[in-house]
Structures are given as C-alpha cells and as structure tokens.
Recover the amino acids of this structure.
C-alpha cells in the first residue's frame, strides 16, 4: 500500500526495539473480550486506476451544469470560481496544516484568516468576524445562543422567512436548552410581518434574513429599530453573501450579530458541504463570540505577526464554560472566500452583484410576460417566487428530462404555497438559458 | 546525526491585502453582459464593501507567499498528539474535485443525485462495519459537532423514556470539546479522575453513576494514548442504571479492525474523518464528524437519512423521534468523498495495518525517548504517547522551550500541555505514514534538544 512506508525490515527492527515478535503483540493491553478477531467486511482495496473509474462513474450520476440548467438556489448557489482561486486553494501548505496553534509554523494560515475576518466584517459592515463556522445554519444558531448569553433572556424570535432548514437547525440546537424559539409570520408582500413583536416581551433576539428565503429584500432598518425598541439584539442572517456587494449591508442597518452562509464566495456547492458559516458582531460583543479569532500582534522585535486570540472563550481553555464547543471549523472554506473576494475586489463585486441582479430581473420580466405570476412585488436579489399553473409538477418532471431544473417547489416548506416555486438566477445563467426556460414553461 | 531538515523559518514580508493593489484592477473575469441593466431602487443600494482591487498576479503572489510561510504534513513530520496528522493522499483531492460532485446542488431531486446518495449510503455502511454500530449519519461537520449530535441523541432517548436526566460523566483526561458539547446540550458534566494507570477504574464509575446521570462520555483510546481496558464493565454499570455510553472516537486510528466499539458496550460515537480517514485539516477545517449509533438509538438520528428503495437511493424524512437537523444540508460531502476514496483504496487489510503501524510508531518513539523525557505512564501505548518535562525541570527548561526548539530542526512540535492531567505534557502522535527514518530523526532531534537543555 503506497500510503504506508514501512518495509518488512523496518517493522522487524522496530519490533525488536520493543522486545516483541509481531504487530499483534502491540495490542497486549487490549482485553481479550474487547478484541475483534475477524476481518472487516469491506470491499477489497482498489488501485488508484480502479478508484478513478469507480468515482468517475459515481460522479457522472449527478445532474450538474453546464449540461443541466439548474435554476435552483435556496441556500446553495452556482457562481463562477476563477481557476486562480481553486489553484491557490490546493497549495498543500494550506491544505495539510492543522489549526494554527503554533504561530511560528503557520503565519500563512494566520495572516490569510486574519484577512478573511476583515473582508467578511467589511462585507457585512460589522466590526469583528470569527475565523469561520460550519455553515450558515450553525452560525445562525450560535448567533442566537450568543444573544441569549449576552441578554440573559430566554426567548428568541425568528422570521418564518429565514431559510426553513436553518430554522430546523436552530430548533435542534435550542431543543435541550429550555430556551424558547418563536416565529414571525410573513406578509403577502413576501417580507416578515413584525407586528406580533409589539405583544412580545423579554426577548433575547429577533432574527431576520435578508435577502430572505423568497429572495425579497427586507427593510432591516425598520425591523432593527423595532427590535431595539424591545431592547433585544438584532440578529440578521443571509444565504446569498454576494448580495452585499450591491445592497446595504446589515451592519449599516443596525444588526448586532450576523450569522449566515458564505458558500457563494468561491466555494463549490458540493451537495451542500463543506460550507462556510460566517459569524460577525460589534466589538462590544467580541468576548461573547463563539469560535476562533485571529488577531494581529507584534513580536519581541516589533515585527507584525498573527496569533489566535481571546482563546479564553474557547473550549480547550474554558471547557464546559466555553462560548461554544467548536474546535475544527471551516478554515479552508474561509480561505477560499478570502481568495475569491480578493480576486473580485471592491470594484468587481459591485459589478458582479449588479449583473446577478439584472439577470434575475430579466427572467422575472420574461416570465411575467409569459403569463406566470410573480408572487411578491417586493424587490429581490437573485431569487424570486413564482406561481405556476396548477398541475405544474408534471411540467416540472418533463423539464427535468430536458435537463432544466425549474427551481424549488415551495409546498413542502410552506404548505400554503401550493404551485409556488423559488427560482434562482446567477451570473452563470445566460440569456439563452433563461429564454429556454421561459419557452418551456409557456409551452 | 543527519543534517537537520529545518531552517528557522522562511520569513517573508508580505503586506496585508489592502496594502496592495490599485483602484480599478480586477482578478476576476466577468461573463459577457447579455441583459440590460434593470431598474433598482436607489434606496436599497449600499456603499459597497471596502475591498482592495487586485490583479490576478497580485492575488496569486500574495497567497503563494503566504503558503510558503506555512508548515503542513506535506512539508514534514507533524506529530501533533490527538490530531492524527497523517498523510492525505492526493487522489482523494482529485476525486472530491470531480465536477459531478462539486457542482451538485443539495436539493436536487434524488433521481438526479444518485451518485452522491449511493456514495453516502455505502460510506455509512463502511463506518457501521468499522465501528460495529448499527447506523450512521454523515451530517455532523466536525468532531465536536458529532459530540453535540450524540448528546442530543442521548437527550432525546431519555426524553422518550419519559425521564429527563441532568448529568454526563466525563473523565479528567477528556478533550475540551467533550465538556463543552455536554453543556451546550444542557447537561452538567461531572468530572471523574482516571486512576494511576491513566485509565478509568470500574469503582470510580460505580461510585458516581446514578439515576440522574444520562450517560458517560469516554474517549477510547483515551487522550493519554491508553485503551480504556475497563470499558465493558463500565458500560455495564452505566447501562444498569439506565444511562448510555458515548465514545469520542477521535482516536479510532489506533484500533481500526482491532476493536469494534459496538461490541464493547458503546451506544453512540463519532468519528473524525479528518483524523482517522486521512482527509486534510485545511489549517483548521473543514472536517467531518459522522455519528454511529447502536440499534436502539437509530430512530433519533438526524434527518434526512439516505435509504435504498428498489435499487434507488432516496432521502427519507419520516422519523418522528429524530433530533432534527444538525446541518443545513447533508454534511460535508466534499470531505466524505475523500474519506470514502481512502477506505476504498485501503481495503480492510490495510486499514487494520494502518492502525498497527500507527501503534508501532508511537510505541517505538515511547521506547526510544523514555530515558530522555519523563514518561508518566510507563506501559504499552496505542497511537500516541505522552511525556512530560519533569526531567528538564532542574535546568528550568519547559515543554514550550523544547517544542519551539523542534521547529528549528524542521519538525512541527507535538501537542503540548494537553491532556491537563499531565503537567507539562508533550503528546506525540506520529501516525502510520511516517517512515522509520523520519521517526529516527525526530527521536535524535529530541535527544539533542534535551542535551542542549543540560548544557
Ligand atoms: C480527543 C478529541 N476529541 C474531540 C476532538 C474535536 O474534534 P473537532 O476538532 O473535529 O471538532 C478532538 C480534536 O481536536 C480530539 O482530539
């Protein structure tokens, strides 16, 4: 086996040093009744050649662009990733290192993550971002738990237009804690209905996603004010990070904590993971943040260097009193996002986000013209909800055969929205692709 | 002694990103604009993020220089205890970057995602076989996330039994994520000390196990690199009082094909694919922390589950006792593909051999260094061995000094000051992918450093 460097000679000379005869004797401390004496029932080893064949067969069994036209977003987006980003990200000095506990050996990771934190914070208009979380859903759950710790109140309120799967993760995290999660309904304009807030008291946080699950842009400023009137923390979430290249960022609208997903920023969809949980807050709450942080410092000679900082919040120091249990995070995904944002740049992200917006608007306009109902007239980014004629399931299946995936059927998530679909367009969809979708839907 | 591989480090003077570049540059190729600008309410538009504008060359040089400033397993030996820094085979990376996998949307209709689903399904079976457990979920994103998932399952189990319990027993040798996961799940961790042999005694558990204790969380092999020999009796006691046994399987690299956790009383455990199954650590992640459970806990696993139905794979949601979702989608599939590729390349014999060689390397280092460094538990170890700086104390040389000195010789230092039960701990985990020559050089280097300490 090419991954195992020991020759028989190596093994016997090492065993000799240990004064034993065979590899099995190494396990003398295993009680006999703990031992498994059989052979593992696993497939026989494949050569690298055979593995290539096997994996390419499996991977061909997936519907992916460019062959398929996938108008499906809902928290996982098809964006172009420059070759330079994939190439740099495969540098094995980044890939095969551990968490940068030894700063002398890992200034590369540390500086890159420090820069990522700054880029993420600037994108969101916040002061501090952590080194990463698992995904948008866990970042949101941790943001809400953080709000509970800061306010010492037990109840959080989340908009029903936060990604339904994120809300389920929040439920899972909150289930054993005894803290309460309540939901705000939505208006027929496709944005959160916050009137119920007036009746609620003793809230730790109110959480709003913008652009929300329907793609609609929420009025964060007003919702933030309402939240602050209740002396609760305003937590915002997002699934499409690119939106803030164009739209007002959550920090400028009064967000206290932001937890969302950065997959759009140079990370492939990969069937949903690994992803990039982005968590950010103001400096005021920095010590309550869960997860790792990299800080800038000076060494004894006055040279700038980077280190993990504020570790006293973390599990390896604080154990059960830590702000979170997170240890391994999604560092390499954060690095991908940093490389991506550095490549796109300040001028570029504006143009790219605008192009995404314009393309989605194009499809919206065309569908409207074709007689499809655009359900909500609130402005959207990249995604929007349409109502297709009843019986569209058959058309949907028919379109699958034509290699078009006509969005996400919303009924399983919002039973009241029968025949409604969430469509997504990014810069990867051409005018031709969109025209083809419209043509098929019409016919 | 052979000439040292190391240098005192390649020091580059690489400015921060925003100290580089010039307004108007771009390192990203925009597609041709084939639609007209649409109306957009000015009220919605923000100022745009304050990012630098860099050319592609600027970006490439920046990150290439930063990469050169980093040390990885591909650079040299990385004997970081508890982290299993084994070599990550390159073919794994290649498989995970196949367009069919990277381009897959997680909410595709299952008929259009058979490749990923089949791989997940098979991989779960492999882990069931390796752990001796009944069912597995791939949703947890890392070891600690798996621990949390396991605790949620234990919590849900007791709730279903109609009796809420409040405590979890954790040995003092445990990794920090263990108590943190326990308290995140609303349990109170109760610490139990290990005995003079570095393992849990049956008596200590019998003493504290009570009907208010939901279970025990044991790392096995433990963080001293020792197998918890009393695990079966401990499991009996815990089960006898209605509790469950969680195994932190982060150290599974010691016992693949040697021990099946399901056979020795474990009810639920996590594996760290980024340790045992060769997926790279990426400077801190992403990882993957699948959770495997015994039959009685299967109903509580996160949803959706991948199941086989008439030769096709589907995602099933209908498990009313499930703890729900722990990740937005299906877990870190990009990482799972690498671990899957590893298991397929290794096959059953080599997986077992990998564990044997990992244990051989650790015991060899222990034997070779035990005169030089103090060995608090002088007995056969598993995949890692723990020393301390006690012998060097007279010279006022501490663990940290020796760790830093190792870097000058081209080695990544071992884990230091963990586990907490050994003052000045030096925890060495060579893994099976280090050759005898590299290990000999590590040993000689450590001896030389200890000699320097005496001078
Ligand atoms: C023994 C042990 N348990 C749990 C963990 C946590 O795993 P992760 O970092 O993947 O969350 C680690 C890793 O650091 C570990 O060494």
């Amino acid at each position: 086996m090419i991954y195992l460097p020991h020759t028989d000679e190596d093994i016997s000379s090492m065993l000799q040093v240990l004064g034993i005869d065979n590899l099995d004797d190494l396990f003398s401390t295993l009680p006999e009744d703990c031992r498994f004496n059989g052979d593992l029932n696993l497939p026989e080893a494949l050569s690298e050649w055979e593995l290539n064949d096997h994996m390419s067969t499996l991977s061909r069994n997936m519907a992916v662009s460019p062959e398929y036209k996938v108008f499906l977003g809902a928290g996982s987006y098809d964006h172009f990733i420059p070759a330079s980003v994939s190439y740099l990200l495969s540098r094995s000095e980044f890939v095969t290192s551990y968490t940068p506990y030894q700063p002398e050996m890992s200034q590369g990771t540390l500086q890159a993550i420090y820069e990522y934190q700054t880029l993420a914070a600037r994108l969101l208009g916040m002061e501090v971002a952590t080194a990463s979380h698992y995904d948008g859903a866990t970042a949101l759950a941790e943001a809400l738990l953080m709000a509970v710790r800061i306010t010492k109140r037990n109840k959080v309120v989340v908009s029903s237009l936060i990604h339904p799967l994120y809300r389920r993760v929040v439920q899972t995290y909150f289930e054993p804690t005894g803290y309460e999660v309540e939901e705000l309904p939505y208006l027929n304009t496709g944005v959160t209905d916050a009137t119920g807030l007036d009746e609620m008291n003793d809230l730790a946080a109110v959480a709003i996603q913008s652009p929300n699950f329907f793609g609609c842009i929420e009025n964060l400023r007003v919702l933030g004010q309402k939240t602050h009137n209740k002396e609760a923390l305003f937590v915002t979430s997002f699934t499409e990070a690119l939106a803030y290249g164009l739209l007002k960022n959550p920090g400028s609208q009064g967000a206290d904590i932001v937890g969302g997903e950065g997959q759009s920023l140079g990370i492939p969809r990969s069937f949903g993971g690994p992803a990039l949980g982005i968590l950010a807050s103001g400096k005021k709450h920095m010590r309550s943040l869960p997860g790792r942080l990299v800080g800038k410092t000076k060494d004894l000679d006055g040279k700038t260097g980077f280190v993990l900082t504020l570790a006293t919040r973390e599990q390896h120091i604080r154990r059960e009193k830590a702000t979170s249990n997170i240890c391994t995070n999604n560092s390499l995904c954060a690095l991908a996002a940093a490389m991506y944002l550095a490549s796109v740049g300040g001028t570029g992200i504006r143009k790219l986000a605008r192009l995404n917006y314009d393309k989605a608007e194009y499809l919206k306009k065309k569908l409207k013209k074709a007689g499809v109902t655009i359900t909500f007239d609130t402005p959207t980014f990249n995604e929007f909800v349409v109502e297709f004629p009843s019986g569209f399931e058959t058309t949907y299946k028919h379109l699958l055969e034509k290699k078009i995936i006509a969005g996400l059927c919303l009924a399983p998530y919002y039973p009241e929205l029968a025949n409604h679909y969430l469509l997504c367009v990014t810069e990867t969809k051409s005018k031709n692709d969109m025209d083809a979708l419209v043509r098929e839907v019409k016919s | 002694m052979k000439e040292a591989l190391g240098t005192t480090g390649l020091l580059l003077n690489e400015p921060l990103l925003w100290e580089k570049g010039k307004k108007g540059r771009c390192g990203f190729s925009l597609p041709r604009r084939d639609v007209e600008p649409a109306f957009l309410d000015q009220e919605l538009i923000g100022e745009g993020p304050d990012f630098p504008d860099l050319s592609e060359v600027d970006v490439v040089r920046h990150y290439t220089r930063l990469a050169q400033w980093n040390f990885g397993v591909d650079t040299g030996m990385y004997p970081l205890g508890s982290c299993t820094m084994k070599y990550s085979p390159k073919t794994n990376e290649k498989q995970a970057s196949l367009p069919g996998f990277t381009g897959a949307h997680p909410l595709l209709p299952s008929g259009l995602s058979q490749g990923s689903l089949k791989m997940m399904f098979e991989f779960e079976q492999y882990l069931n076989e390796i752990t001796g457990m009944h069912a597995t979920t791939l949703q947890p994103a890392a070891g600690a996330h798996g621990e949390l998932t396991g605790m949620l399952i234990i919590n849900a189990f007791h709730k279903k039994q109609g009796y809420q319990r409040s405590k979890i027993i954790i040995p003092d040798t445990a990794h920090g994520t263990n108590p943190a996961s326990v308290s995140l799940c609303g349990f109170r961790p109760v610490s139990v000390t290990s005995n003079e042999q570095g393992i849990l005694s049956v008596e200590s558990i019998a003493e504290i196990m009570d009907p208010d204790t939901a279970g025990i969380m044991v790392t096995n092999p433990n963080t001293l690199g020792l197998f918890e020999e009393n695990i079966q009796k401990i499991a009996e006691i815990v089960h006898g009082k209605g509790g469950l046994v969680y195994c932190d399987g982060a150290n599974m690299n010691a016992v693949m094909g040697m021990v099946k956790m399901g056979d020795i009383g474990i009810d639920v455990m996590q594996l760290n694919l980024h340790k045992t199954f060769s997926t790279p650590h990426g400077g801190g992640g992403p990882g993957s922390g699948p959770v495997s459970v015994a039959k009685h806990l299967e109903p509580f696993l996160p949803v959706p589950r991948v199941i086989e139905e008439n030769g096709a794979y589907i995602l099933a949601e209908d498990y009313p006792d499930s703890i729900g979702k722990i990740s937005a989608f299906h877990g870190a599939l990009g990482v799972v593909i690498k671990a899957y590729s590893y298991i397929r390349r290794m096959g059953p014999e080599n997986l077992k051999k990998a564990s044997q060689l990992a244990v051989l390397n650790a015991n060899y280092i222990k034997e070779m260094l035990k005169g030089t460094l103090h060995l608090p538990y002088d007995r056969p170890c598993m995949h890692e061995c723990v020393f301390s700086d006690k012998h060097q104390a007279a010279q006022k040389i501490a663990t940290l000094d020796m760790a830093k000195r190792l870097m000058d010789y081209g080695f990544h230092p071992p884990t230091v000051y963990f586990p907490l039960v050994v003052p000045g701990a030096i925890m060495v985990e060579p893994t099976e992918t280090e050759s005898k020559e590299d290990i000999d050089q590590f040993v000689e280097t450590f001896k030389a450093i200890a000699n320097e300490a005496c001078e």
In short: The first strand of chain A starts at residue 69 and ends at 70. The pocket of pyridoxal-5'-phosphate is lined by residues A 327-328; B 82, 142-144, 175, 177, 219, 223, 248, 250-251, 272, 287, 289 (CB under 6 Å). Chain A has a mean pLDDT of 96. The first helix of chain A runs from residue 8 to 18.
